[in-house]
Amino acid sequence: MLALGFYTYQAAWLLPLAIASAWFILWRQDGAISPATQAHEEKRRGWRFVRGGAIAAMTAGVLLLPLAIFFFEHPALFILRPAQIVTTGAAAATHQSLSESALAYLLMFVPLVQAGDLDPRRNIPGVAALNLWQAIPFWLGVGVALWRIRRPAYSIMLVALVVMLLPGVLSEYAPHYHRVLGAAAPVALLGGVGLDWIWRWWGEGRGARNAESAPLRTARLAWVGWLSAVLLVAGAFVAARDYFVRWAALPDLFYAFDVGLWTIGQEIASQPADAVLYLTPRSAEHPTLAFAWTTRPESHGPPVTFDGRRIFPLTAASNPQPEHYVVIEDEDFRTLLLPELFPTAVLADELRDREGDLYARTYTRPAASLPQRAPSVPTSREIGDGIRLAGYDAQTAALESGKMLYVQLYWDAITTPTQQWTVFIHLLAEDAAGNTTQVAGVDSLPGAGSLPAARWQPGWRILDEYQIPLPAALPAGDYALEIGLYNEQNERLPADGSALWIGEVSLD
Questions:
Q1: What is 72-88 written as a DSSP string?
Q2: Could you tell me if 280 and 400 lie in one domain?
Q3: Burial 218-240 (b: 16+ CB within 10 A, else e)
Q4: For 202-228, what is the mean pLDDT?
């Protein structure tokens, strides 16, 4: 079980520390470290314990061997996730210190302090891991365990609690309940110790200290023992109310658990095979969407996904059938240009969150309609690999150094491109000798990678926008815009390697 834990979650990688500590405590208790006067049989028993521990460790090692070989061959994967969330080393400057993180996990067991996990996916934001009725027996149990720490049953519980909290203490965003789920078992056991102490101490054991008055005092205080049952029932009731009523009704869960994406995914999955569907700005590979589409027949395929804040695909000519654009407007604030492109488009559906705020809209472009937006600088230049430049827009009003230059390219897909092309847009300055120097620019996959050229469909027009930051020290004057494409082999389009000069911009 120890070895298999390594395959499940990286927090389990600390289990050897907990198990080795428990083994050491039991070894000491069993007489492995014995005085010279200890009986021979006790020594033999201790060595049997050592031999059993060694056999268990070797068995775990054998089961762990495939994973160990994998990590030996891919050492970067071994430390990848821990390096991303660890609070020590270079990352410590941006996260809590170890002492702050440890305090956060200590306070998550104090219900009178709003110091719980703030992520609504894991918890009612800020609420402690234990409610008051659960925290009372837990802290009593911790006290009893500390008082009886010499006994293995209690010391092992405390060690397990500390070790299973370490994945959280050593990582960012404390307290993070998912990272310390391994502590649930020792927390429950310590809570049980506290309940048991109330039951035995007040109901049975307290009166036994004075034999003469025991019957009278036991009868008088026996009812106190039932407080353990009251705490158990009250803790369970409050926890059920918190997580099945309060937490379940949180409006934040709409976003935390991708309710909107799931609804959109199911709606898309229910559409007929010939429906033309577009979705912005989420990718088809998003886990929630991909799972929702598992009910969609494979022949239907997923919708066309793109990030409408950077790129927009559409049928350039009259569309033979309606086209449906699903826009997650909570995230994509740019696709409001749909009415500008398609004045006859209709609002087909709306999706709102639990508070009634708009989350997504579905627009339908009617069949046999033409896009109404044309490039401000039209052109028709064959680039290659089925790509034509139809024109461009450049936002040049009040253009100043230190600001942003917006350029939108209009691509026409004659055929589906066969390769992934990176687009470059360079701003060039020319000196007195006629030599040009790049002073600003950007290189990027179309749509920042959300709609690469290899996914373009014949007959599309693609509105591809780029933002070029202008250096603050850039002097006023006229500058040329050069564009082109290149692939991973550094092959360029146009194929002859010539630059495409698409115009000039002027800085005031």
A1: HH-HHHHHHHHHHHB-S
A2: no
A3: beeeeeebebbeebbebbeebee
A4: 58
| pLDDT at res. 190 | 97
Alpha-carbon distance of 48 to 61, in angstroms, equals 20
How far apart are alpha carbons 48 and 112 in whole angstroms?
48
Band (163; pLDDT cuts 50, 70, 90): very high
Residues 214 and 90 both lie in one domain: yes
Does 347 lie in the same domain as 430?
no
Same domain, 280 and 415: no
Whole-number Å distance between alpha carbons of 177 and 122: 7
For 312, the domain range is 255-365
Q: What is the CATH number of the domain that holds 494?
A: 2.60.40.770
Give the C-alpha separation, 215 to 207, whole Å.
7
Domain membership of residue 372 (yes or no) is no
User: If DSSP codes are grouped into helix, strand and coil, which group holds residue 400?
Assistant: coil
Q: Where a domain ends, among 300, 331, 365?
A: 365
pLDDT at position 64 over 80: yes
- pLDDT tens digits along 310-325: 999 999 999 999 999 9
Is 290 within 8 Å of 336 (Cβ atoms)?
no
Q: Write out the two tokens for 158.
A: 């405390």
Does a structural domain hold residue 228? yes
Indicate whether 395 belongs to any domain.
yes
Peptide bond into 494 cis (omega under 30): yes
Handedness of CA 150, 152, 153, 157 (dihedral sign): positive
- DSSP-derived letter for residue 10 is G
Residue written as token pair 């950077």: 310
The tens digit of pLDDT for each residue in 356-396 reads 999 999 999 999 999 988 898 898 888 999 999 999 988 76
